[in-house]
Design a protein that fits this description.
about 280 residues, 2 domains, MetI-like fold, about 0% strand
Length: about 280
Amino acid sequence: MSNTFSSPLAGRSTGDRLILGLAILLSLVMLLPVLWVIAMSLKDNAALMANPNSVFFPPYELTNYLNIFATSSVFRWIANSLIVSVSMTVGVLVLSSLAGYGFARLNFPGRDVLFVIVLFGLAVPEQAVVVARHQIFSLLKWHNTYQGLILPGLSSAFGVFLMTQFFRAIPKELDEAALLDNASRFRIFWKVLLPLTLPAQATLGIFTFLNAWNDYFWPLISATRKEMYTLTVGMASTQTNFAQSEGLGYLMAQAVFAGAPILIVYLFFQKYIVTAVSGAAQR
């Protein structure tokens, strides 16, 4: 009976084996900080203060994570982060897809100039417009509201650029064939072209969700009431002045707790990211 299971190294040359071994080694090196953070999050703060090397030895416990859940508002902060991140992701996908289709497929006066103006948005840091944005939102009384946290993130120059490039890569013969069948422009966009951009949308959605979930700068300015904190701002508000030295375990538990949803989202959509990146490389 032939062996149906083969080693990943079977049939590979010596060079391929060395490259694969190096890739595995580098992956382990990159994982070391993550494992370090997780191990510290499972240690008692007093034990870490007495002996930092105790992170390598048991016992390990969940006290730091239980202390996080003991914070009365933590679930409200999680809900706020989910509402903001999901709403921002959906909004960016809708607006970027429509704008990308318009720039890639429609001819209208000033299209190229407008696209260049959109690209300029990639070079403008958020800090450069935060004062004007703060004043506008103050006049509209949108601080400490969900729209105040969500709307600034809907203008994604990167999203428009990404979707424009993907729509341009789709053969225009598909549009012409659909037009011959009397399909409207919106029907062509919705039924024919949009499904073909699923890898790009998944990639853009993940990056948008990640940025929205980890955003600390704008929520810190806009959300001044405790019930409107996102998770990043809420976790920071629970730290003491000596958290860096006296509460390392609790600090690391906060990092793991806040980063876990991002890892879960990435694991679910990993294949779309790989497809999008490989497709972009081929182009």
